[in-house]
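Researcher: First entry.
Model:
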Amino acid sequence: MRWLITGAGGMLATDLAGLLDDAVALSRAELDIRDKDAVTRAVREHRPDVIVNCAAWTAVDDAERHEEEALAVNGHAVANLASTGARLIQISTDYVFDGTARVPYAEDAPTRPVNAYGRTKLAGELAADGHVIVRTAWLYGASGRNFVKTMIRLERERESVSVVADQHGGPTWSADLARYVATLADAPPGVHHGTNAGQTTWHGLAQEVFTLLGADPARVKPIPASDYPVPAPRPAYSVLGNPRLRDWREALGEAFVEIQAGLVAGQQP
């Protein structure tokens, strides 16, 4: 089976490309998915059975300021991929929900994003109707910038760090998600939730990182989101139900070895 992965260089795309033998991974410079003619040429050249769309505008706060530009990537461009005749696996987000729930969101729960990023990703889900949609959350991995790497760096640089403690979600290792996505080539169309099981807050995740570093987790100070104002509001609770992947603490413990090895090798924290 032939795979085409968009958004090469990102966390998930990197892990998928390393996992799948018969995969071509294209960066934005190699394939701008907003360009329908370029998408058509890429599909004609590589003849994929499955396209995994990892290309996205992921800068949440920038999307709030530039929603139309984000929509072009996260929404309109998905239609270009969905119309190629190949099976599309569209990567989406927990931010399609409003965060008012108190139990994990089911895959068929009503969507109501509270920020531009969530609205644009929901547009991508609608464009991918009839294909496979995988929602994930709080992604981290050995490649690219992410929260776990930031906490590793801050533990070295600061005596204490203040981290938001009233936003709940499911931290997800990109390598675990890649392994799951690789099983979906023949899955029926529909929405799948692809996160590691369990839930925590950003504060709880930071404390776990400090613990794995052998540092005192009490150095991570809890603060409310209101003390850390950002342009885009975040859902207070975006835990996804039916997560399908193993417990987030187990995953983080295994991922930590790989992430630290990458940092030692000089990868960007």
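Researcher: Second entry.
Model:
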Amino acid sequence: MDGNQAPLYRVNELTPDPNVPFDPKVTGSYVKYAHWLAARGLVNSSVGGMVVRVPHPDYPDGVCYAKPQGVSLEEVEAEDLVITDIPYGRILAGEKATTVGHQMNREMLRLRPDINAVIHLHHDETIAFLASGYEEIRSFSLTYGFLMQKPAFYLPASINVEEDVAPIKTFIQDTNCVIMRRHGFTVLGRTLSEAYHRTCVLVSEVKRNIIVETLTSRNGKTAEYITDEELSHMWKAGDSVMYPDVVKRKG
């Protein structure tokens, strides 16, 4: 190996870095949002996960806070968390191993420097709705498009990007929400708050789909979807409607 080549590390290799201490504010925020997701009934056992990127001068991609394997978002506490680097998954703080899905989350953060939080859930209604023969989740509300800001990307059930992250680079730039058939979904956000709100609006839209399809099957009427043209406008206008302060900072 020459001096310019990056060293190779193993996922979950313990490489403690005293310059990467736990930030109580970040751990507190992580636990708060994890428990909020659980309070909404969106957490199943210890599956699913959430990661938060924090900038660090020694790590160009930042460092990543995550829960370890075997610990549910419902029960996670600050002392359970680990910090990893993003390219390799080395454990820089903490000692517990991360889940297999952590490599998917890390790869999404690596490929999307504008994103700082990823939430992945095995959501019952999303899995059931798509397993019932529906091809996509349609929008009925005036909030979904403004919050999500990009169209969802649908992965076939045959592709599991938790185990093989290679396909992620082909679609992740064009979406903030990956729908994984028979698996659940993964939502991205510039902040943990944004990822949480996008998660909430997604599960609400899934619920609306189920209700509308149930009601129209009984009354014989045609569902009133938000059109693709309307959604396209909403993607573009999202910040000006939902986050005017972001638009001011950009200006």
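Model: Note on the second entry: The chain has a mean pLDDT of 93.
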